[in-house]
From TrEMBL:
MF term (GO), any: ATP-dependent DNA damage sensor activity
Subcellular location: Nucleus
Keywords, alphabetical: DNA damage, DNA repair, Nucleus
DNA repair found in the keyword field: yes
Entry superkingdom: Eukaryota
BP terms from Gene Ontology: mismatch repair
Gene Ontology, cellular component aspect: MutLalpha complex
Coverage span on the entire protein: 9 to 359 of 723
Name the record gives this protein: Putative DNA mismatch repair protein family
Primary subcellular site in the record, as a coarse category: nucleus
Similarity comment: family membership: Belongs to the DNA mismatch repair MutL/HexB family.
Native species: Lupinus albus (White lupine)
Domain DNA mismatch repair protein S5: 217-339
Amino acid sequence: NSPEYPPKIHRLSHSVVKRITAGDVIQRPLSAVKELIENSLDAHSTNINVIIKNGGLKLIQVNDNGHGIRYEDLPIMCERHTTSKLLMFEELMRMKTMGFRGEALSSISHLGHVTVTTITQGHVHGYRVSYKDGAMEHEPKPCAAVKGTQIMVENLFYNMVASKKTSQNSHGDYTKIVDLVSRFAIHHINVSFSCRKHKATRPDIHTTAASSRLDIIRSVYGVEVARSLMKIEAADNNPAPSVFEMHGFMSNASYAAKKMTMILFINDRLVEWSALKRAIEVVYTKKMHKASKPFVYISIVLPPDQIDVNIHASKKEVSILNQEVIIEQIKSMVKSRLRSSNEAQSFEEQI
Ligand code: ADP
Ligand code: MG
């Protein structure tokens, strides 16, 4: 028997493609938790609770009290490129929601088993339905439900290579998830967050809405951190076109940590901006007597057309117009705040 030679080109089936590419959006349980929390925030929730089993590989459950999902939308909810947030490409320029690609739930449902329970306002009961590979497994079943949505993801990565589904590092995964929830909690102070292990009696983080940001930082990162924070603020003093505002907290000269904590939100989106992080780290290294790493929380607000959130499927890194100008201004502000805190400290040491 002679196999076809040369090998014939054929189209991969949709489900094979999806399994291969789903990993771009969801690399670890952490990325799934981030997507689910962002969906809850997009649904205007004020209460978001996360439950994790086995680092998220066995179970990720996110409960919210948001606006819920329409009954008639449930059939397509986990299909790829289905979203309630974006209609026209042009809207990308002024995206206010975290989501817009309509990819997260679809990807997650190709990597694990998804069960949604949801109720919308004015209805006496909710619906529960499960999904596999983007499709409903059965008709939605009426059920009792409290306000909002619960999304349950079971056995994430069950069909993936060993490296993904291994539970060896499930403790590390859980730690990262708690850290992620902490970051959201510190920024969204009008939302209560909690995160606990499945069957644990106490949550590992629990914040209450309407506490001050400093109170939340204290409850999450401890008194030591909170005590050594300085409030920071900056606004662009240049004329147009670059308009930006930032506020946040940075640690003072007496704070000493081995690792830098950098929590950055741009237009309410939790992102990484390594150039800014490095710039701030360098300022601290130069200005501090001791080799200690800072704690920094920064929230930046930019005109939506100055930032591109669509450069990465995971929406983790963003691309920003006038990067250098913004970095330069934040750097010089950090520098001067650190100098005055340094002087205050050496003054205290003298007396
Ligand atoms: P995206 O967030 O990019 O729209 P997703 O795949 O994350 O795509 O979600 C698909 C759709 O499902 C959302 O547009 C939203 O309408 C709905 N949805 C998902 N999670 C929730 C939730 N927790 N509450 C209300 N609606 C939700
Ligand atoms: Mg989403």
